[in-house]
Amino acid sequence: MLTEVHVPDGTAAVVGLMATGARVLAGGTSLMPSLNDHASPETELISLRRAGLGGIRVDGGVVRLGAAATLSRIERDARLAVLRPVVRSIASVPVRTLATAGGNLFARRPHGDLTVALVALDARVTLADSGGTHELPVEDLLAGTAPPALVTEIVFGLPAAGSFRYLKASRRRFNSASLVTVAATVTEVDGVVSAARVALGGVGPGVVRAVAVERALIGSPLDVPAVRRAAEAGLGEISPADDAYASAWYRARVFPVHLRRALLGH
C-alpha cells in the first residue's frame, strides 16, 4: 500500500485536494488504524496540520471550535469547562492529544461522545466546498443530508449555568467505549421543564436525538416520575446493537437508569 500525504496551507487548498478524492487526516486516531492494517487500497491523505483549523474562540457566549482543535486543548480551556467532563470521558490522554473535535463527528458507534454533547447543545458546523462556506446543524451533518464538504468549525452557545447534563456509562472509567451516553440541556421555569434537548450515544447506529424523551419532560417538574415516563418514551427511539462491550438487551435494560442518573444526578 502506498500513501501520499499532502500538507496544504489553508482551507481552499484542502477543498481542492478533496475534489480529487484525497481523504482528510486530522488527528488520525480512527483513520490511521484502518490504514495500518493493510486492508485499504492506495490512498492520498490531506493533513490539516497547517490548514489553520485548530483555534478556539469564545465571544459573547458563542463558542467556535476549529475542526482540528484537539480534545486535550478543549479540556484545558477554562472557558469550556462545560465540556470538560465530556472530553475526560473519551479514550485516554495520549488519544486526546491527537483526536480532534471535527474528527469526533465522524467516529463510529459506540464512540463519538463529544458529538452526543454537541447535539444536546444545538451545535452547528461550518462547511467549506468549492462554492464557499455555509452552516448547518450537527444533526443534519450526522444524517448525511449534506453534500461532501470540509468541516471547518463547530459553533454553539454556552448553556446557562446548571442546564447541561452529561453521563457516560462504560465498562471502565477510562479508555472505554460507551454503553450508554446521555447529554441534555434542560431549561426550568418555576420548577417546570420549559425546554429540553436530549441526545444519546451507544444505543443506535449513530447519535440519537431523543425527541420523545424531550416531549415527555416538557411541562413537568424534573423529578423521578417525569424521568421514568421520559425513559419509557425513549425506549421506542433507541436501537442498540450487540458488540464487544455489551449486548443490545443490556443497553436497552440500563438506558432508563442512566437517563435518570444523567438528569437527576442519582
From TrEMBL:
Which SMART domains does the protein's record reference? Answer: CO_deh_flav_C
Entry coiled-coil feature ranges? none
Query: Looking at the keywords, is Oxidoreductase present?
Result: yes
Q: Enumerate the Pfam families for this protein.
A: CO_deh_flav_C, FAD_binding_5
The family database entries (Gene3D superfamilies) matched by this protein are listed as: 3.30.465.10, CO dehydrogenase flavoprotein, C-terminal domain, Uridine Diphospho-n-acetylenolpyruvylglucosamine Reductase, domain 2
Kindly indicate whether the keyword Protein biosynthesis belongs to this entry. Answer: no
In what residue span(s) does the FAD-binding PCMH-type domain sit? 1-161
The alphabetized UniProt keywords are: FAD, Flavoprotein, Oxidoreductase
Q: Which PANTHER family match?
A: XANTHINE DEHYDROGENASE SUBUNIT C-RELATED (PTHR42659)
Query: What is this protein identified as?
Result: FAD binding domain-containing protein
Which species? Answer: Actinocorallia longicatena
Species lineage, top-down?
Bacteria, Bacillati, Actinomycetota, Actinomycetes, Streptosporangiales
